[in-house]
Each structure stands twice: as C-alpha cells, then as structure tokens.
Design goal:
Layout (H helix, E strand, L loop, with lengths): L2 H16 L4 H13 L1 H28 L1 H6 L1 H20 L16 H13 L2 H13 L10 H28 L6 H39 L2
Length: 221
C-alpha cells in the first residue's frame, strides 16, 4: 500500500462517518443558515477534532491487537459488516429536524467549535464505527509498526471530514432558503446507503475469499 492509498482510504472513511445527519450536522447546517458559511465550517471543525481522536484511538488500537484480529478476522468481518448495515438502516430511518429561527442569537467561532467538539466526543457509537471499519479493512490498513502509514490514514480521515463540512456549509449557505427537513432526509438516505454498501462489500469479500479458499482446497486433492 502506498501513502496516497492510505490517505484516500482514510478520506473515504472520514466522509462516510461524518455524512450521517446527527446533532452536529444539524447544528452546522443551522449555523450556516443563520450566520453564514464560516460558522458552519467552524462547527464542523469541532467534530473533526473529535473524529480525529476517535480515528487515532481506533487505528492504533487495531494495530495493538493485530494478532487477535488476524486470528478472528472472519468473525470481525461478519460482525462489523452487520453493524455497518444496521447503522446504515438506522441512519436511513432517522429524520432530523432543522430549526431555522433562533430569535437573533449570535454565535462565536470558538463557542461553535467547542460545543460541536463536546457533542461529538461524547458519542460512544462513533469509536465503535471506526473500530469495525478499520478492523474490517484487512490488508488495506497499515501494517503493525507502520506508524507513518497510520498517521497518513488518520490525516485522510481528518481531510475527508473537513471536506464534508466545507461542502455542506457552502451548499447550505448558498441555498439556505431551500433547506428543509426533506433535504436532511436525503443526506441521511445517501449516507445510509453508503454504509449499507460498505457492509455489503465486506460480505462480498467473505464470499469471494471463501470460494477462492474452497477452490484452492479442491485443487490440492
């Protein structure tokens, strides 16, 4: 695996773990609608810091127990794939509400970032999602001891999450008169499908590798 590949994989993970519309996404969208693009981005940056911490803990945690993971890799794929599909279905069925009016309240950049960070860092589900995604990557994650590769993948996660917040804040601030709860539902539907597909690809890998192993077994008889 090259450095660029680690960054790109991390980037994809950063986007799909950030896109589901939860409290921070709603907060970022509301602030972008009320106060403009930069306020939406600063809300997102608070979540990026939290996600980077979670991603670091997950990827280095996976590396620390890599021998166990290699021995239980199929089980982890089965459980991880199922959880990602369940999470995707849950995201699909989540219907966030956007409140556009806030009685003229003004927001500070530091307050936006800090509030979003604490909302994100207190969500234990995020670390589990990162753990199962990195655990299920198999040969596509950095080797044990490859700290530079791990850091590049973490940088990719941060870049993907930041790109998402910039994109959302730009779209929302530009089309703020058209943003409503149905728009949020569409985002969750796309994010839910992405997680379901990711989980499905894990099961596809299990099936393909199972067929490959079976073919190899019979060829030696």
């Amino acid at each position: 695996m090259t450095v660029l590949e680690y960054v790109l994989i991390g980037f994809f993970v950063g986007v799909i773990t950030t896109a589901p519309v939860g409290p921070v996404n709603v907060m970022a969208i509301q602030h972008a609608v009320r106060s403009g693009f930069s306020h939406g981005v600063f809300v997102g940056l608070g979540a990026v810091v939290a996600d980077t911490i979670f991603a670091s803990a997950a990827i280095f945690g996976v590396a620390a127990v890599t021998n166990f993971i290699e021995g239980q890799f199929r089980l982890i794929e089965v459980v991880g794939g199922a959880l990602l599909i369940i999470f995707g279905i849950k995201i699909w069925n989540t219907h966030p509400h956007l409140q556009k009016s806030d009685n003229g309240r003004e927001y500070s950049y530091l307050g936006d970032t800090t509030a979003a960070f604490f909302i994100a860092i207190t969500n234990p589900g995020t670390i589990l999602v990162f753990l199962f995604i990195f655990g299920a990557l198999g040969n596509y994650r950095p080797e044990p001891g490859d700290h530079f590769g791990a850091l590049m993948m973490i940088a990719g996660v941060a870049a993907g999450a930041t790109t998402w917040w910039i994109f959302v804040s730009a779209v929302v601030s530009h089309f703020k008169t058209r943003i409503d709860d149905r728009w949020l539902d569409r985002i969750n539907h796309i994010a839910g499908v992405a997680l379901i597909v990711f989980g499905g690809l894990i099961y596809l890998d299990l099936v393909v590798n199972g067929i490959s192993h079976a073919t190899g077994f019979w060829s030696h008889l």
